[in-house]
């Protein structure tokens, strides 16, 4: 149930200052003194309430309006607050952040977690590409967001600078992934950060307290358990040790449910060790590309975030093609596999999650330039007209399978290594 109110009080100056601190959206300031005489002549709508849980828009009577007799007022139709909430949840995040300043009840509604979830289900999806890199020569960690349509269609792509919560920072923090507008960062081998850049809310998670040793590393995963409607971060700690007289790796797996502020151990990784940079979230599961127990092949290990149990997913039938290496990803909310050969990469989608027979090859992407160069490292997004955005040697490439052409978006003032990720705007807060 959304919050209800009998009186729609205007937001105070203090409220507006708090809103400005919470997000980057600008709130218009009052007009300067020389414009005050012009402003007072305008008709201004005053939000009042004449019935419980209803709103009425009432312009005050004014002699400046020749069509309104002195003492008369014009009443707009009364709207139940539930109907106002229904209307607001269809608006993009950017507009809702501006509408927080209309009145306290609207601000309370927009910050309500249940409204945020309802808004996520029905509102227009506004999707961005985010790039992370370190600036030269300052070495400060930097993040920029780009409109995805502009990446596909524009020659030169303009950026929006994002304010990373932990800056100034002189090191690179790896993006683990995104889910429902929340980005997860591995800020070191023992800690993670959750951040929604759309609303400016973030939460630094407690440390893992693993026993660090030479050769050890941590791989994270992040997603949502749709059954319990909770967000979870998974940390797979891999460490080297003697196993039956042979040097090998073991794992410790911990999971944190957002709102509990504590890590707990679950069953360790079932086979081999993961070697992806991070787990890929699809259909309530986190998926890793891992080495088999013998180390001679690759497997796909899936962790169900609800049941907290593992299973191995069967790979596509590559049709006798000599696969050199694999890359796991997500496209169109489906698990994606890039199978790399000597001169091209095949793009596969698992359209029915968990069903081997649903693996479908979309197309093959030839390598750019030297055939001996590195393969594509990530498939990021497919547009409505089937163009695919790929990462290639720390650069972005748009491939059009319909005519076999490539396009390199011009993203200026970025030198060196970058990591791209796609995220959608939302009101979901990581601060439960």
TrEMBL record:
The record's listing under InterPro entries reads: F-box-assoc_dom_typ1 (IPR006527), F-box-assoc_interact_dom (IPR017451), F-box-like_dom_sf (IPR036047), F-box_dom (IPR001810), Gal_Oxase/kelch_b-propeller (IPR011043), SCF_F-box_component (IPR050796)
Pfam families linked: F-box, FBA_1
F-box domain mapped to chain residues: 73-119
Output compositional bias ranges, type Polar residues.
45-66
Q: Where is the composition biased (Acidic residues)?
A: 13-25
Disordered: where is this region? 1-73
Q: Which Gene3D superfamilies match?
A: 1.20.1280.50
Where are its TM segments located?
Answer: none
Record protein name field:
F-box domain-containing protein
Q: What is the native source organism of this protein?
A: Clitoria ternatea (Butterfly pea)
């Amino acid at each position: 149930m959304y919050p209800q109110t009998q009186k729609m009080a205007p937001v105070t100056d203090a409220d507006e200052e708090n809103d400005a601190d919470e997000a980057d959206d600008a709130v218009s300031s009052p007009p300067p003194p020389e414009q005050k005489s012009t402003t007072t002549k305008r008709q201004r709508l005053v939000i009042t309430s004449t019935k419980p849980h209803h709103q009425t828009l009432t312009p005050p009577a004014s002699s400046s309006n020749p069509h309104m007799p002195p003492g008369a007022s014009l009443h707009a139709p009364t709207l139940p607050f539930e109907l106002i909430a229904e209307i607001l949840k269809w608006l993009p995040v950017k507009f809702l952040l501006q509408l927080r300043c209309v009145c306290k009840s609207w601000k309370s509604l927009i910050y309500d977690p249940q409204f945020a979830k309802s808004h996520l289900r029905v509102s227009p999806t506004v999707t961005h590409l985010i790039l992370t890199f370190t600036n030269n020569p300052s070495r400060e960690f930097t993040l920029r967001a780009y409109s995805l349509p502009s990446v596909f269609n524009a020659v030169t792509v303009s950026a929006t600078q994002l304010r990373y919560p932990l800056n100034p920072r002189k090191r690179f923090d790896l993006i683990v992934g995104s889910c429902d507008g929340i980005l997860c960062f591995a800020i070191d081998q023992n800690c993670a950060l959750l951040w929604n850049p759309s609303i400016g809310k973030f939460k630094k998670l407690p440390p893992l307290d693993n026993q660090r040793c030479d050769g050890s590393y941590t791989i994270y995963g992040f997603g949502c358990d749709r059954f319990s409607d909770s967000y979870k971060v998974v940390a797979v700690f891999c460490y080297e040790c003697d196993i039956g007289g042979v040097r090998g790796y073991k794992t410790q797996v911990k999971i944190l449910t957002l709102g509990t502020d504590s890590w707990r151990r679950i069953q360790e990784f079932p086979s081999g060790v993961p070697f992806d940079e991070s787990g890929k979230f699809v259909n309530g599961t986190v998926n890793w590309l891992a080495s088999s127990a013998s180390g001679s092949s690759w497997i796909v290990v899936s962790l169900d975030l609800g049941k907290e149990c593992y299973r191995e997913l069967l790979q596509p039938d590559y049709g006798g093609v000599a696969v050199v290496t694999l890359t796991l990803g997500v496209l169109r909310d489906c698990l994606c596999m890039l199978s790399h050969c000597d001169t091209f990469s095949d793009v596969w989608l698992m359209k029915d999650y968990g069903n081997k027979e649903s693996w479908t090859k979309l197309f093959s992407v030839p390598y750019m330039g030297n055939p001996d160069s590195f393969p594509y490292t990530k498939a990021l997004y497919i547009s409505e007209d089937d163009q695919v955005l790929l990462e290639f040697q720390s650069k972005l490439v748009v491939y059009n399978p319909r005519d076999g052409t490539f396009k390199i978006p011009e993203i200026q003032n970025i030198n060196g290594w970058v990591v791209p990720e796609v995220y959608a705007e939302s009101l979901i807060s990581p601060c439960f």
